[in-house]
Amino acid sequence: MSTQDNIAAQQAFGEAVNSADLGALDDLVSPDCVDHEPAPSQGCAAPGYRRFFAQMSTAFPDQHIEVEHLTAAENVVAFAYTLTGTHLGPLQRHGATGKSVKIRALQISRFSGGKMVERWGSSDEMGMMTQLGLARA
């Protein structure tokens, strides 16, 4: 697959999350995908991503991922993004606060055959919990 195909697959992943069409992740993530920084209780491959983003959609029904910068070379796509949302549902055993969050994150994805096979990422989870009043910086 070309670099452009990998960029398109990564963009489709983001569109699936933003539209809550999480079933689309099955076509974008290899069953053998390795996530080097999974979220708590995320699990592996597409089922893990579906579970995680379903939880996030419950906690933040208006969640939105906006890619700020994307670069790619061969089979690797790296991007910086901002996640926004309003906390209206349970999150990690915490009830809704009604507060809005805006956090920055980075991700590097490796692709093979048009599917994500490996992922590294970092997000400002402490910043999110601080914005929600659930932690102190």
Structure description:
- This protein is α+β, with helices and mostly antiparallel strands and 137 residues long.
- It contains three helices and five strands.
- It has helices spanning 3-19, 45-59, 125-131; strands at residues 29-35, 64-73, 76-86, 100-112, 115-123.
- A hairpin with a 2-residue loop joins strand 2 and strand 3 (76-86).
- The longest helix has 17 residues, at 3-19.
- The N and C termini lie far apart (43 Å).
Secondary structure layout:
Elements: H1 3-19, E1 29-35, H2 45-59, E2 64-73, E3 76-86, E4 100-112, E5 115-123, H3 125-131
Parallel strand pairs: 1-5
Antiparallel strand pairs: 2-3, 3-4, 4-5
User: Percent of residues in beta strands?
Assistant: 35-45%
Continuous helix count: 3
Which ranges are low-confidence, i.e. pLDDT below 50, for 5 or more consecutive residues? Answer: none
Task: Compute the average pLDDT.
Answer: 95
Task: Summarize this entry quickly.
The chain has 137 residues and is α+β, with helices and mostly antiparallel strands. It is built from three helices and five strands; from the N terminus they run αβαββββα. It has a five-stranded mixed sheet with strand order 1-5-4-3-2.
Properties at a glance:
3 helices, five-stranded mixed beta sheet, alpha+beta, 137 residues
